[in-house]
Each structure stands twice: as C-alpha cells, then as structure tokens.
Amino acid sequence: MKITPLEIRQKSFEKAFRGLDKDEVQAYLTSLSQEWERILDENKELRIKLESALKEVEKLREVENSLFKTLKTAEDTGANMIGQAEKTAQLHLKEAQMNADAIIHDAQNKARKTIEESDMQAREAMGEMEDQLKSLAQAYRTLESYRDDLVAGLKSMANDVLDKSTRVATQAKHFDIENQIQKAKNIAQNYKFKNEARKEMTKKPVVEEPQKKVASKQVEPQEEKSFFDDIE
Q: Of 16, 48, 102, 125, whose CA is between 20 and 30 Å from 116?
C-alpha cells in the first residue's frame, strides 16, 4: 500500500475512553510525515541517478564494442604493417650501412686533413706565442726597472719628509709664540709707518735735511726671519 506524507498528516483516529494524547499523536504524525517525505525525495533522486547511470553504462558498452572492433581491425592491420615494415626496414638498413661506410670513409679523409692543418696552425701559433712571451718578458724587465727606480724615489722622498718632520718637531720644541707675535706686530707697525711716509712724500715734495734722512733710515727695521722659513 502506497502512503503519502499528506495522508499521514491528515490521518485521524477514533476517540476512546482514556485514549492516546491527541497533541502527542499529531506531533508524531507530523514528524513521521516529514521523514517519509524526505525518504521519498531521496528515493526519487536516487532513481534519477540510477537511470542516468544505466544510460552511461549502455553508452560505455556501445563504446566498448566499438573499441573491440577497432582494436581487432588494428591488430589485423598492425600485423600486415609490421611485416611490411620489417621488409622496408631491412632495405633501409642495407642502404644505411652503405651510406654509413661512405660517410665514415669521407669523415676519415676530412679528419686526416683537418689534423694536418691543425698541426700546422698549432706550430705557427706556438711560434707567435714564443715571440709574444719574449716581448712580454722584455716589458716585464722594463717594468721591474721602472718599479725599482720608483721605489727608490719614493724612499728618498719619504726620507726627506721624515727629515723635515724631525726638524719641525725639534724647532717646535723651541718655538716661542709670544716672540713670534711681537715680531708680527713690529712688522705691521713698520708696514704702517712706511705707508704713512709714502703718503707724506706724495703730499709735500719738500727736500729733507740730511739729518732727517739719516733718522728715517735708522727707523726702518730689518725684516725678521720667521720660524717657518727654516723648515724649507
């Protein structure tokens, strides 16, 4: 007997004294109808899948039969092709052997000629390399000589710098800064006095008396030698 979910939900029972609880029965029937509906849906879906699978199986069987026929035909054709290929391969093998013998003979001749040419080129290259090595050796000896001269010059320069540094250090010990400042002031005063004297001479071209000339000559001081002049 086929029962639908709707029939389960709409099922009614006769009342009896002290019978079952109506709400509980109705809730159970509702739950049962829902589960029955779910089972029917799954069954329907499975039936659809089964039909689809059966169709696919039928198609695969047809493909299998076709492949079997194709394979049988291919085997028969392959056997014929293999026999024909073996005959063709034997002919090609003979031709290849003959061609290989000719190629080997030609290659041997070319190799012999190439070896002779390479040997000649190698001897020429060796001669050129020997000449280049001689030139390089001569250039190297020239560079060594130049290097020795340069090193000697640098040593001499270093010694001169060391001597000057020693002299500077020695003189710096005896350097009197106050004395040098006083000398600088004297030089500045003398320079100022000379400038003023030149201005006076340009303003009043008067003949000076011999005594004044002598006095002016006595006023001009001699230039002091600086400490740094001794370093040169």
A: 102
Query: Phi, psi at residue 205, to the nearest 5°?
Result: -75, 70
Query: How far is residue 124's CA from residue 86's CA, in Å, rounded to a whole number?
Result: 55
Rounded CA-CA distance 223/194 in Å is 13
- Does the predicted TM-score (pTM) go above 0.70? no
Q: What is the chain's length?
A: 232
Question: What is the reported pLDDT for 45?
Answer: 92
Residue 193 makes CB contacts below 8 A (sequence gap 6+) with 219
3-class SS of residue 221: coil
CB 36 within 8 A of CB 8: yes
Residue type, 113: K
CB 49 within 8 Å of CB 28: no
Residues 20-37: b if buried by 16+ CB within 10 A, e if exposed? eeeeeeeeebeeebeebe
User: pLDDT tens digit string along 133-158?
Assistant: 888 888 888 888 888 888 888 888 88
Residue 220: name the closest of 189, 199, 178, 177 by CA.
189
